Automatic annotation (TrEMBL):
It comes from Paenisporosarcina antarctica. This is Transcriptional regulator. The keyword Repeat applies. Keywords: CBS domain, Repeat. It comes from the Bacteria. Residues 22-78, 87-151 form the CBS domain.
Length: 151
């Protein structure tokens, strides 16, 4: 790291990082999926957050590892509880858009103390889930910034 010029260049690249350029594929499940199947899904897809959609494929909720763990602790009948009963639901879902800056998304993750945000596209009657941004994506972006500037 050497001096003012590098500092300005790093700042510029950081401000230009967009959610779109660092996103992952979203894993979504429908509201009526049973908790048992959602747990299997989370393992098979190797994600920490599942997004929940209605029959029109519009965002209705989010499911974290601990949401599923909490439900598993007290219940034997995970095959009979649909995920919409235990999920965090709209309008309490924090989301972002693909053109948002990565900094803006990072701030949402920290402010809300969550691991992932759905990237959505707005339609007249709902939000379509088109991507996912996680703490891992932000860490990767942080590293790419250092690498691109030989830090
Ligand atoms: P964990 O609960 O496994 O630590 P999180 O910190 O991501 O994982 O989730 C904390 C809580 O926030 C959970 O109850 C989860 O349903 C909820 N949550 C996860 N993602 C979002 C989101 N994008 N918007 C609102 N709530 C969320």
């Amino acid at each position: 790291y050497s001096g003012k010029k590098t500092g300005q260049a790093v700042t510029d690249s950081m401000m230009n990082m967009k959610v779109r350029d660092f996103q992952s594929i979203p894993i979504v499940v429908t509201e009526n999926m049973m908790v048992y199947d959602a747990i299997c899904h989370m393992f098979l897809e190797d994600v920490g957050t599942l997004f929940v959609v209605d029959k029109n494929a519009y965002l209705t909720g989010a499911l974290s590892r601990k949401d599923l763990l909490r439900t598993s602790l007290g219940n034997k009948e995970l095959n009979k509880i649909p995920v919409h009963i235990i999920m965090t639901r709209m309008p309490n879902i924090t989301y972002c858009f693909k053109h948002d800056s990565l900094i803006h998304a990072a701030k949402k993750l920290i402010d809300k103390q969550i691991d992932a945000l759905p990237i959505v596209k707005e339609h007249p009657d709902g939000y379509e889930v088109i991507g996912r941004i996680t703490k891992t994506n932000i860490t990767g972006a942080f590293l790419s910034l250092a690498e691109n500037h030989d830090l």
